[in-house]
């Protein structure tokens, strides 16, 4: 199994900028072939094609992938694990499975990763060792499970377990994002419509009201002043907001203390805090269950699970749990000392430790909290819909009403 020290050491390894190459050549029967390949240089393309029995006649650089094109998303790795598990289970050799998956993907960066894995494994490296060279794309749990699968001769089952684990985390993450982004996006649309009315529509009414020769109602005057302010400062305000967002993200990346404080604050938010708490517990127990079931030692599994919580408060708590377990404390007692886990969760973990079925009990705890997250998100969405309608009505409706008040007064005077 790949050691944690070796995995951490490879984290600093830099990956070359990859390029899309267009090639033309002939195979062993003289048939003309052409295609594209993602690689870091020409020698890599020629070497890979030579392994397929293709003689390169023409090779040209088509384009370099931009920085954002190099990003491999979590769901890409999930799909890769699922496809590899299916092919290996069907009896396809590992190297042939790499080639088939690489040819089926439309993501250039993922294809380059798979081709790099192919070259490393064909050069005599183990699959887990090749994965450990890419810590920016593959987490430690993936490496540990693949190493366990290689040792036990059950690589297909371990890859299937990885895919299932990542799919469940993706579903959980999507539910949490829905709870957080849904109200923000709707309110943002309402604010955007309001700004558009203030910039484009209100000035037209202001021109019309200037010929009335009468004092405008107070709501209308306030709306006109707000419109003038927005027209004069909208660009500066947008730049300030974007700059503040970028600055906050920069500070959070470099300030663990501030990151921890924001994590604590997020857990105290009404409704949302409960969803984030249940989500963190579900991610922790799911990761710990998957790692422990694969034969990963408990202390290493806890270290992996600390990075999967998605919340700094729970990440620190898991580090404390690991320290207590390392000192001989039982897992459920160490979890109780953090005061972050429910009595039901602690009781199930205690039963699992006594019965020797800790992975199964942790899996049940994860399923329970995932269901809780789903129910709370659905409830939050149902409760927010009427609230959002009221807010949008006050924003847009109040603005429109304030602009029509002078027209109503003029009509009543006539």
TrEMBL record:
The chain crosses the membrane at residues 179-199, 233-252, 383-405. The keyword Cell membrane applies. The keyword 4Fe-4S does not apply. Keywords: Cell inner membrane, Cell membrane, Membrane, Transmembrane, Transmembrane helix, Transport. One of its GO terms (biological process) is protein secretion by the type II secretion system. It is found in: Cell inner membrane. Its main location: membrane. GO terms for cellular component: plasma membrane. It is a multi-pass membrane protein. Pfam families: T2SSF. Residues 80-203, 284-406 form the Type II secretion system protein GspF domain. PANTHER family: GENERAL SECRETION PATHWAY PROTEIN, PROTEIN TRANSPORT PROTEIN HOFC HOMOLOG. Belongs to the GSP F family. This is Type IV pilus assembly protein PilC. It comes from Kushneria sinocarnis.
